[in-house]
Amino acid sequence: APLSEEDAPSEITTGAFAYLSKYGYIRNDNPQASTIRRLEDYHSAIRNFQQFYRLPETGQMDEETSRLMSYPRCGMPDVIQRGDQDQTRFRR
Amino acid sequence: YSDSGDKWDHEDITYRILNFTPDLTEEEIVDAIERAFKVWSDVTPLTFRRVFNVPGDIHIQFSEYDHGDGVAFDGNGGTLAHAYFPGNGIGGDAHFDDSEIFSVFLSDDDKVDLFMVAAHEFGHSLGLGHSSEIQALMAPFYIAYDPEFSLGYDDLHGIQSIYGINSDPRPGDRYIPQRPQPSPPDPEVERCSKSFNAVAFIRNELFLFKGKNFWRMREQGKPLEGYPVEMGQFWHGLPPKIDAAYERHDGKIVFLKGSHYWIYEGVDMDPNYPRPLHEFGLPADVDGALPWGRTGKTYFFKGEIYWRYDEYENRMDKGYPKPIKENWFGVPNNIDAVFRHYDGYSWNTYFIRHRRYWRFDESLGQVDLGFPRNFGVDWMGCK
Is ipTM over 0.95? Predict the structure, then answer.
């Protein structure tokens, strides 16, 4: 679920967070996670996205990452998530 | 590419078009969908047949917003379509967001080419997930209609790893793939009789090169059917009898032969290759190349010595070359090929010389007991 305005640190953009969640980079199974944890998840998700598409792994929403996310796309997630954390992975 | 793990258990796939978008005529839609299926049927044993009034394997529909599957579309832009991996019920079905403006044979920023989107979605319908190769059809992003579209290495590799190759192209195929139509096996080539020129672990498959041919292997001891295939059909411009090959940390494929090396992006040679091997700081005629995971280090072997090259820095590491016997205990000199292979649990390094191979234990730093063994028997299904 998107962060509320109160919870969301300024460096998290709701759109990017939603995008990363929708396409499998962020798990939504812990809505009670702390803000710090969410921030970590967010940057980790960006890094995973960058790694998946071989972009420079900055962990930040840089121009190149943002441009790629702006393209229209297929609605299927990039990352297939299974029941438990251990099985969350990129299916190569 | 990624493989969902789901596949159809039959080759004659049926599809049913449940409705049409008003953006195009029914004839245009049917033609785009037929062309999209043909992308996949041309390179696999699969056939696609349209059915009416009876359930099909793949149901195709155009819908807006919430359309009953729990995954709502988002209006114009954003998500264009989605599809389900093979299976019963909704499995295999492809849904197109009717808020998009679909077109055919038109490169227009405001419109989406139905053939391009459908070809991608049907890839999901057949079991492929998203590719991290941006240029691949199975990459999720829609960039533009490509009038020169042809299925690339990554997609071809992916779908053929699930369904195998189309060994009997049908007459009248309109879509002629520019990439490999593997040739019939060459009876003169005895995969078990000699050693290999080079072996490389590329995109999670083992590629074994001998003379002008290569074999592919997904599982140890089970070379894919339809091989060997001539290297030149796959990697255009590559000469036969290469010395070594490896997948670099960035996904590029490097081939070495004699005093030169070639770099390929998938099946396409990068511009300005081949280039002289002395740019690596290496002599001609290396025996083998061994990339070391994502460290960016690559080991090169020749005769009794080896080098360690830093791919990020583009230079040989200091202190090299060194004698093979200094750090690779039990590994012979004058190898034919070397590769690293993931067996599902851990990585092992294998050295091949003539018809024998040695398994090197990375944690112990020495060749495992019981080696060398017969490579053909253990790896190539030879008796």
Answer: no
Asked if B21 and B73 count as a contact pair (C-beta separation under 8 A), the reply is no
Angstrom distances, CA of residue B318 to CA of B279, B283, B301: 16, 16, 16
Is the minimum CB–CB distance between B130 and chain A shorter than 8 Å? yes
Cα within 13 Å of Cα(B94), Cβ side:
28
Mean pLDDT by 10-residue block, N- to C-terminus, for chain A (92 residues)?
46 80 80 72 90 88 90 90 41 34
Minimum-distance CB partner of A52 among B80, B82, B132:
B132
A75 contacts in chain B (CB < 8 Å) = 71, 73, 79-82, 97
Residues from chain B contacting residue A91 (CB–CB below 8 Å): 2-5, 129
Interchain proximity A54–B251, CB inside 8 Å = yes
Q: What confidence tens digit (pLDDT) does each residue in B288-326 have?
A: 999 997 788 999 999 999 999 999 999 999 999 999 999
Cα-based angle B149, B153, B158 (whole degrees, multiple of 5): 110
Chain B contact present for A56, CB below 8 A: no
Nearest CB to A91; choose among B77, B100, B129: B129
The structure tokens listed for B70 are 């729990």
Asked whether B94 and B33 are in contact (CB, 8 A), the reply is no
The pLDDT tens digits for B15-24 are 999 999 999 9
CA distance linking residue B378 with residue B383, whole number of Å: 9
Give dist(CA B121, CA B78) in Å, integer.
15
Element (H, E) at B210: strand B205-210
